[in-house]
Design a protein that fits this description.
By secondary structure, this protein is of the alpha+beta class. It has twelve helices and 25 strands. The strands form six sheets. The chain has a five-stranded antiparallel β-sheet. A four-stranded antiparallel β-sheet has the order 2-3-4-5, with no helix packed on it. Helix 4 (45-53) packs parallel to helix 7. The protein is elongated.
Length: 466
């Protein structure tokens, strides 16, 4: 507090020898009613950061519109970095820029506006990329006769990732649509004449930033949809599940083995002997654990692979008494070498239907938006999938999904209706809904209501004009 001459005069006026009469005090209050103290402007930045961390993203966005002072304080580098680390740690590195922060705040669904662009993709006349990845150098002759539309069912549900959609519309071929430039690549199975394979012999499994992966009998097929190359890898049994990151592929085989493969190099089989010995499972548990295996990459470290699975836990180690809980397990590998494990026991929900107790299904899925997690869910014929725990790949621990379920992005990412044969998936660029062989994509960009126009990047990568 300053102690200049003017402050002394005010102090003498209010509390001096003569002081103020009651009427004068009331008049002074009347004069001061329009003067407000802005606490956010006056508080130290450390305190403002603590306040910001207690705000929901939607409330944080509202604070940006109170005044220019509030906006500058809440968008200071220290506040943005602390808030991003707590609310979307998977999306930041060492620093956070203001445009990226505002863009993330909007695209994650925490701020609403009418700035949505619904893209109408007509599959029947989708422009084809001039480079086609097949042995003929052109699209298969029957491609133009494929009856695109919601009445036509693909052999497997479409996949969306990194602004691209992969479909399996016809036996022997895979299509990859680039939503940003609105072109399509048609990729044929390389080991058999196009159209000669039974539809189940080519299965679309995974779509990554560089590779689209399918299985064909006992081999993996990987198309590089960026560099326009195709690779094959014979295996000793059929493929169960697949994950891909950059130019690396991880595959869970039907026999339970897990292999790592980089196209153009030899495949490496993970050594499970030490892990299996540590778990000490009986024959029934080992069978469930092997069948439920899923593989997920660490998107911040391409050398790290997570193996997630589950198995039943029995009372007094007696399977005849029935399972009382499911044990979710996550195992970390680095360059193919086992590192460590985590597990979480979840008590089964009670069901009045005997058939439900015999038909419990454990679902394991990945979530890569503001958080980087592996989700475990359970469902029965009479109950929809319900998430019961998640594993944080950044913090490397299990945590409750209650807080994350309040995220609009999380709710939209797991929107699924098996009865209507629709599936919805999204990232920070597009939200895609699948309908058999057709799909709809919605592209959004930040409105001016959450910041100045110069703070918001143009969705097409152009500079904003003033």
């Amino acid at each position: 507090m300053s102690h200049g001459p003017r402050f002394s005069e005010i102090r003498n006026l209010v509390s001096g020898c003569d002081g103020l009469t009651l009427e004068e005090s009331r008049y002074l209050k009347f004069l001061l009613v329009d003067f407000h103290t802005d606490l956010i402007a006056e508080l130290p930045l450390e305190i403002v950061t603590m306040i910001a961390l207690d705000l929901r993203p939607k409330d944080f966005a509202h604070c940006l519109k109170v005044s220019k002072t509030w906006r500058e304080r809440f968008l200071s580098a220290a506040v943005m970095l602390a808030y991003a680390r707590q609310r979307w740690p998977a999306m930041i590195t060492s620093s956070v820029t203001r445009p990226d922060f505002l863009y993330s705040l909007f695209r994650l669904g925490f701020v609403y506006s009418n700035y949505h662009l619904r893209l109408d993709f007509s599959n029947s006349d989708y422009p084809l990329d001039p480079v086609f990845i097949n042995r003929f150098g052109q699209p298969p002759a029957f491609y133009k006769y494929i009856p695109w539309g919601r009445g036509f069912t693909t052999y497997s549900m479409g996949l969306y990732a990194y602004g691209k959609v992969a479909l399996h519309p016809y036996t022997g071929i895979i299509t990859v649509d680039d939503l940003r430039v609105k072109t399509r690549k048609v990729m044929a199975a390389p080991s058999a004449p196009t159209g000669s394979l039974p539809p189940w012999e080519l299965r679309l499994l995974s779509l990554g930033s560089k590779l689209v992966i399918a299985s064909q009998n006992k081999q993996l097929v990987a198309w590089d949809h960026v560099e326009n190359e195709v690779y094959e890898k014979p295996l000793h049994c059929r493929v169960h599940r697949v994950a891909t990151h950059d130019m690396t592929v991880a595959a869970v085989l039907c026999g339970g083995d897990v292999v790592l493969w980089t196209p153009g190099h030899a495949a490496i089989q993970l050594d499970m002997s030490r892990l299996t010995k540590e778990l000490g499972l009986d024959s029934s548990q080992a069978k469930d654990w092997e069948w439920n295996r899923h593989v997920f990459f660490d998107h911040r470290n391409s050398k790290t692979l997570y193996l997630a699975s589950s198995y039943d836990v029995y009372a007094d180690d007696n399977s005849s008494n029935g399972a009382i809980a499911v044990r979710a397990t996550v195992h970390k590998f680095s360059e193919g070498i086992y590192i460590s494990s985590w597990n979480f026991d979840h008590e089964y929900f009670k069901s009045s239907r005997p058939s439900d107790c015999k038909s419990r299904n454990i679902l394991i899925s990945e979530y890569e938006l503001e958080f980087s997690c592996i989700f475990f869910s359970q469902s029965t014929p009479s109950n929809p999938p319900e998430h019961f725990v998640a594993f944080d790949k950044i913090q490397q621990k299990f945590f409750s999904v209650t807080d994350l379920q309040q995220s609009n992005a999380f709710a939209r990412a797991f929107a699924w209706s098996g009865r209507n044969e629709t599936k919805q998936t999204l990232d920070l660029d597009f939200q895609v809904s699948f309908f058999g062989c057709d799909y709809e994509a919605t592209h959004v960009w930040p409105p001016a209501t959450i910041g100045n126009t110069e703070d918001c990047p143009d969705p097409n990568g152009k500079e904003n004009e003033t």
